[in-house]
Amino acid sequence: MAQLRIALAQVNGTVGDLTGNADLIVEWTRRAAGRGAHLVVFPEMFLTGYPVEDLVLRKSFVDASIETIEATAKRLADEGLGSIPVVTGYLDRRADVVDRVGQPAGAPLDAAAVLYEGRVAVRTAKHHLPNYGVFDEYRYFMRGDRLPVLRLHGVDVAVAVCEDLWQDGGPVTVTREAGAQLLVVPNASPYERNKDDVRLELCARRAREAGCALAYVNLVGGQDELVFDGDSIVVSGTGELLARGPQFAEDLLVADVELPDAPAEFEPGETPADAHDGTTITIERVLLSSTPVPPYAPETPPCAEPLGDLGEVYGALVLGVRDYVRKNGFRSVILGLSGGIDSALVATIAADAIGPDNVHAVLMPSRYSSDHSITDAEELVKRQGIHARTVPIRGMVDAYEAELDLTGLAAENLQARVRGNILMGLSNEHGHLVLTTGNKSELATGYSTLYGDSAGGFGPIKDVPKVTVFALCEWRNEQTAGLPPLVRASATPPIPRNIIDKPPSAELRPGQLDTDSLPPYDVLDALLDDYVEKDMGHDALIAAGHDRELVERVIRLVDAAEYKRRQYPPGPKITPKNFGRDRRLPITNRWREIAAPNTGDPARVGKKQTATGE
């Protein structure tokens, strides 16, 4: 058996920061060298960051990526690290393709390079391009058609990229035909709930199909609406878990793997192979080093325990906020603190993400604010050590009402808009990033005020259903011992018990409760999950056991609020279908799922509905 020590660099880069990301490649390769690694693997498109979206279509950006990857290879050698092969993702192009309509401009490639002895020894590109969910890769990339197989210390190592694992056929199938002993896969796989279990099963299955060990390195960090959770994995050729990295944290996952000896004969060159997906992939055999590693005592590889469902969700929210603030040049955040559960959770996430000294809360009581809401908010401020100030809004609201003579819903929404103006004014004055506090249930049903509580720069819980908001608060209160780097230790639970226990209310009129306008959240969220996440129609929702009257009411609310959601700030994706990158519906749209009168058939044409709570 041959031995190989592989280092998976689960690192947090920044989109567009080629210089900074190149520095990280050198820094983490040096760390890997210090650990005795024979091979270092970085995530998908790590040099450029991922996703780079329409930057892909800029020739200047692609040119810079190619120049920087070549310079990084030389720099590694200049700094004494050239003898360790480094696999990293970057952006390249097909030079042999002429631009045409229907093809990404410039023929970009989601590429991976092998840096060795001061040069780019191998270039390859993702074969399978995802075009679902948050991915638009047919828009951006050309398909790769090569599988590099590197002879490294007497072991044959194949290289594939991310989606090549998720789809049948292609590089995994060809890896078996090539007879490789190890398949390394750089990834940029964004988080959503329960995806870690799916990934582990996928890696085990693909390792068995490829007939070799598999090393899966994933990106970590926040990028706008996406959060990459790390969770890098090494499995044996039988699918046994050998090593696993932590979630939502940088890590150098070092694993010693025992691999079958490669055949003594190795002839560099190219061989076409049937990819069993309707395409042909060229196996490119490249000799790096033929001398096996002398026998050594292997280290026991780490195997991090998953955080559990609520821990993962909370970790994604914290990392999403931290990186959005840090990578966009902010130092602090500001939010309205009402004494309700949503703003309490957002304040807590922010304090964990960037430290309580960088969180500024504004209490903005109105004539309808209850005494307990004010005292609950003050207690949260005290427990968490965040900054706070109180700005009563009654005088400002009265001045507006005297000029505009607003009543009913318009008067209620005026209060939210005054609060939004206060937050934006303080943001403008002090440079804080405004955090909105709306949850997914409210966004779905339009239960928010446009240019009021929806005004801000980032929405930490915009993809979190209300039932999960309650669960996260309970979970966070249990973590007083801390969970670095995601959760701070605290002497007491950070969220006062009364905030969790009291009925939710917008407090825009006397005695108001959320249930005056919406069904109980456990009922609502179950229905929203079927309608929004699973795209079930009117009849299917009723067949699934939902009340007909409630189905029709909720469908109307969700459909009418599309234009409001389009104007909401970005926020971390945690569900399979978030409002933003995932769920894309037209605003001007007369299709309705509601049964037409007297026919029982869905109405395909109807009048434009008016959203409530505008």
UniProtKB/TrEMBL annotation:
<dbReference type="GO" id="GO:0004359">
    <property type="term" value="F:glutaminase activity"/>
</dbReference>
<dbReference type="InterPro" id="IPR003694">
    <property type="entry name" value="NAD_synthase"/>
</dbReference>
<dbReference type="Pfam" id="PF02540">
    <property type="entry name" value="NAD_synthase"/>
</dbReference>
<comment type="pathway">
    <text>Cofactor biosynthesis; NAD(+) biosynthesis; NAD(+) from deamido-NAD(+) (L-Gln route): step 1/1.</text>
</comment>
<feature type="active site" description="For glutaminase activity">
    <location>
        <position position="126"/>
    </location>
</feature>
<comment type="similarity">
    <text>In the C-terminal section; belongs to the NAD synthetase family.</text>
</comment>
<feature type="binding site">
    <location>
        <position position="132"/>
    </location>
    <ligand>
        <name>L-glutamine</name>
    </ligand>
</feature>
<dbReference type="GO" id="GO:0008795">
    <property type="term" value="F:NAD+ synthase activity"/>
</dbReference>
<feature type="active site" description="Proton acceptor">
    <location>
        <position position="44"/>
    </location>
</feature>
<feature type="binding site">
    <location>
        <begin position="336"/>
        <end position="343"/>
    </location>
    <ligand>
        <name>ATP</name>
    </ligand>
</feature>
<keyword id="KW-0436">Ligase</keyword>
<keyword id="KW-0547">Nucleotide-binding</keyword>
<comment type="similarity">
    <text>Belongs to the NAD synthetase family.</text>
</comment>
<feature type="binding site">
    <location>
        <position position="195"/>
    </location>
    <ligand>
        <name>L-glutamine</name>
    </ligand>
</feature>
<dbReference type="GO" id="GO:0005524">
    <property type="term" value="F:ATP binding"/>
</dbReference>
<dbReference type="GO" id="GO:0005737">
    <property type="term" value="C:cytoplasm"/>
</dbReference>
<dbReference type="InterPro" id="IPR003010">
    <property type="entry name" value="C-N_Hydrolase"/>
</dbReference>
<dbReference type="InterPro" id="IPR036526">
    <property type="entry name" value="C-N_Hydrolase_sf"/>
</dbReference>
<feature type="active site" description="Proton acceptor; for glutaminase activity">
    <location>
        <position position="44"/>
    </location>
</feature>
<feature type="domain" description="CN hydrolase">
    <location>
        <begin position="4"/>
        <end position="259"/>
    </location>
</feature>
<protein>
    <recommendedName>
        <fullName>Glutamine-dependent NAD(+) synthetase</fullName>
        <ecNumber>6.3.5.1</ecNumber>
    </recommendedName>
</protein>
<dbReference type="Pfam" id="PF00795">
    <property type="entry name" value="CN_hydrolase"/>
</dbReference>
<feature type="binding site">
    <location>
        <position position="437"/>
    </location>
    <ligand>
        <name>ATP</name>
    </ligand>
</feature>
<feature type="binding site">
    <location>
        <position position="413"/>
    </location>
    <ligand>
        <name>deamido-NAD(+)</name>
    </ligand>
</feature>
<keyword id="KW-0520">NAD</keyword>
<dbReference type="InterPro" id="IPR022310">
    <property type="entry name" value="NAD/GMP_synthase"/>
</dbReference>
<dbReference type="InterPro" id="IPR014729">
    <property type="entry name" value="Rossmann-like_a/b/a_fold"/>
</dbReference>
<dbReference type="GO" id="GO:0000257">
    <property type="term" value="F:nitrilase activity"/>
</dbReference>
<dbReference type="InterPro" id="IPR014445">
    <property type="entry name" value="Gln-dep_NAD_synthase"/>
</dbReference>
<feature type="region of interest" description="Disordered">
    <location>
        <begin position="593"/>
        <end position="614"/>
    </location>
</feature>
<dbReference type="GO" id="GO:0009435">
    <property type="term" value="P:NAD+ biosynthetic process"/>
</dbReference>
<dbReference type="InterPro" id="IPR000132">
    <property type="entry name" value="Nitrilase/CN_hydratase_CS"/>
</dbReference>
<keyword id="KW-0067">ATP-binding</keyword>
<feature type="active site" description="Nucleophile; for glutaminase activity">
    <location>
        <position position="162"/>
    </location>
</feature>
<feature type="region of interest" description="Disordered">
    <location>
        <begin position="494"/>
        <end position="515"/>
    </location>
</feature>
<feature type="binding site">
    <location>
        <position position="564"/>
    </location>
    <ligand>
        <name>deamido-NAD(+)</name>
    </ligand>
</feature>
<dbReference type="GO" id="GO:0003952">
    <property type="term" value="F:NAD+ synthase (glutamine-hydrolyzing) activity"/>
</dbReference>
<comment type="function">
    <text>Catalyzes the ATP-dependent amidation of deamido-NAD to form NAD. Uses L-glutamine as a nitrogen source.</text>
</comment>
<feature type="binding site">
    <location>
        <position position="442"/>
    </location>
    <ligand>
        <name>deamido-NAD(+)</name>
    </ligand>
</feature>
<feature type="binding site">
    <location>
        <position position="189"/>
    </location>
    <ligand>
        <name>L-glutamine</name>
    </ligand>
</feature>
